[in-house]
Amino acid sequence: MSNWVRAHTNIALIKYWGKENENVIIPMNNSLSLTLDAFYTETNVTFNENLTTDELYLDNQIQDFDSLLKVKTVLDLVRKKAGIKTKARVDSFNYVPTAAGLASSASGLAALAGSASLAAGLNLSQKELSTLARRGSGSACRSIYGGFAEWQKGHSHETSFAVPVDEANWDIGMLFIIVNDKQKDVSSRDGMSRTVKTSPFYQGWLDSLGQDLSAMKEAIAKQDSHKVGEIAERNALKMHATTLGATPPFTYWSPESMRAMDAVRKLRKQGYSAHFTMDAGPNVKIICKQSELEEIKAHLLNDFTESQLISAKPGPGLQKIEKPDLLK
Ligand code: ADP
Ligand code: DP6
Ligand code: CO
């Protein structure tokens, strides 16, 4: 029997950038995201008495111990809950570039939490799944839900999880400009840790978050996609500003990212409602009306290639599936 589970990536509109507790992953602040249909992970966990260590096969390639660490954290928690000691084989397919700032850790670790708990015979609530996924990668706790989700920071392992905010059943979408799908130099985990420890701008980032979050929730409640984009763009710029103040300083931006951001500003001059956000990587995501996705894409084809531009709509939460897309 297989336990294939699919989880979609999510992109934060109010970013998670820093941990209060690095061991159990308690964030410094609440964050809020939109789950998307275009990018996802499918994972199947099999507990097997014959295994002496956990194994992770990502896109049919066996992974080294380092990339197994996030996975082991989730598997250990599942084993503890289920009262078993059996090692597991994890098969996973990413329909999203891995470690490129496109949130593969969110869909990857959420799918793992879902499949591992099923394979161990646990029947977890969404809240428990969110808590479990969070231990693998913080952003993964939001991918349990479709639409908009808020990760409420909490203060302990049990009290830090995401909750659904809005199904996003309205005119909002995201257009991805892929400028580089290769693995980044500084992982999200290392980048945020360095920033918290060394950047004098970090406190400024924290100080303005409360305002951004409440304004964002109000904009979502009003289904005001323009306002959502405006707040998300300024929130992302503040997050990226903190990395320049770190020691040693770093940035996720490349010249191509700047070109993409300029293209978004140009779209606004032409009268479109379009704003950008960026994560721990050089790729740029445009927040716009779902009904204008194709029109906006057509404009961007002047500056970028078809394969660089990916339209996304709000996506669903965790799903049990029969078979992975790649094996159909
Ligand atoms: P991203 O921007 O893609 O989320 P991160 O630096 O946050 O980048 O995380 C990338 C890491 O997440 C990978 O190096 C790998 O360890 C882990 N990861 C990504 N996809 C999966 C998956 N499907 N299953 C298990 N782990 C995964
Ligand atoms: C910039 O969740 O990938 O995308 O918890 O260390 O695994 P770990 O980091 P991760 O960080 C995501 C950072 C971000 C913003 C966000 O998704 O909220
Ligand atoms: Co990540």
From TrEMBL:
Highest taxon of the lineage: Bacteria
GO cellular component, one term: cytosol
A biological process from GO: isopentenyl diphosphate biosynthetic process, mevalonate pathway
Enzyme class: lyase
EC number(s) per entry: 4.1.1.33
Pfam family, one: MDD_C
Keywords in alphabetical order: ATP-binding, Lipid biosynthesis, Lipid metabolism, Lyase, Nucleotide-binding
GO MF annotations in UniProt: ATP binding; diphosphomevalonate decarboxylase activity
SUPFAM superfamilies tied to this protein: GHMP Kinase, C-terminal domain (SSF55060), Ribosomal protein S5 domain 2-like (SSF54211)
Domain Diphosphomevalonate decarboxylase-like N-terminal: start-end pairs: 7-162
Residues annotated as domain Mvd1 C-terminal: 175-308
Entry's family note: Belongs to the diphosphomevalonate decarboxylase family.
Protein name: diphosphomevalonate decarboxylase
Lineage: Bacteria, Bacillati, Bacillota, Bacilli, Lactobacillales
